[in-house]
Every structure is written in structure tokens, then in C-alpha cells.
Design a protein that fits this description.
Elements lengths: L14 E4 L2 E4 L6 H25 L5 E5 L5 E5 L3 H10 L9 H13 L17 H23 L1
Antiparallel strand pairs: 1-2, 3-4
Length: about 150
């Protein structure tokens, strides 16, 4: 049976196999445990990004802003050059949100089985160009803030 996400990150209850245990993906309420999990998963994400950049000759940039407004960034090359390239690209080849990834994960878990009673979620469609402009605006703001903080 296919499960559809109600598009709220706090209600995501997919089970993901990690090592030998299955965990439920929900917000970690204990702040200390949440910080430890963030540190470990951030390390794993950056390691995968590094490997992907080397193995597939890909430029990668990752920006994370925590709930207490701390900015973390990683780039396989110069971040400023990467952002300039990003702004020069007319339209992303692929652009995904949490909701898109959720659908991909659930589709993969079900492996093609479909229940006729499932209804697709209606969500407003934003053109790729508008999404690209929104991301560009955020990246310009982040770059400006990083520049100011370095002064």
C-alpha cells in the first residue's frame, strides 16, 4: 500500500533502515540528542558529497542553516565561483524538495505497487524558472551575509 506525505516535515513517519535498526523520521525533541545526530549526519552527508565530487567529477555545494541560525557550508571547489556558475545557469536540470524526495522514497519502498484508493496530493505548481530565481535570491543573501561576517 502506498503512503503519501501530507507535506509537513514534522509528520513524516517513514521508517528508514540505518545499520541494524529502523528509526522513525521525526524531529528529535531532546536538544542534546538532536545536536549529536546533526553532527554525525552532517559528517556523513559531507563525506558522501566529497566522494560524489571525486567519483563523478561533479561540483557540489551544500548549505545548511540550523534552527538557531548557524550557517554551515561545503563546496568541492571555491564556493563563490560555484555560486556564480549557479546564477549563470538558466534553469535547473532537476530541482527537488522534501515532498519530492518523500514521494521517491515511498515509491521505491512500494516497488511499483499501486492502490486505487490513493489520491495524489494537489500542490501549487511553481515553474522551474521561478524556483531557480527564489534559490538564487537566497544564495545571494547568504553570500552577502557570509561576506559581512568575514569583515
Amino acid at each position: 500500500r502506498r503512503v503519501l506525505c501530507p507535506l509537513t516535515p514534522s509528520r513524516v513517519d517513514i521508517l528508514i533502515k540505518m545499520g541494524r535498526k529502523k528509526i522513525t523520521i521525526t524531529r528529535i525533541s531532546d536538544e542534546r540528542n538532536r545536536q549529536i545526530t546533526f553532527s554525525k549526519r552532517k559528517y556523513g552527508l559531507l563525506k558522501k558529497a566529497y566522494e560524489l565530487s571525486i567519483l563523478c567529477d561533479t561540483e557540489i555545494a551544500i548549505m545548511m542553516i540550523t534552527s538557531n541560525s548557524k550557517l554551515y557550508q561545503y563546496a568541492s571547489s571555491n564556493i563563490n565561483e560555484f555560486l556564480m556558475k549557479y546564477t549563470e545557469i538558466q534553469e535547473p536540470f532537476e530541482s527537488k524538495t522534501n515532498a519530492d524526495v518523500w514521494q521517491d522514497v515511498t515509491r521505491k519502498e512500494v516497488k511499483g505497487e499501486k492502490d486505487d484508493s490513493d489520491e495524489e496530493i494537489e500542490r501549487p505548481q511553481i515553474s522551474n524558472q521561478v524556483q531557480h530565481l527564489m534559490v538564487c535570491a537566497v544564495l545571494v543573501c547568504v553570500t552577502y551575509l557570509v561576506h559581512i561576517c568575514q569583515l
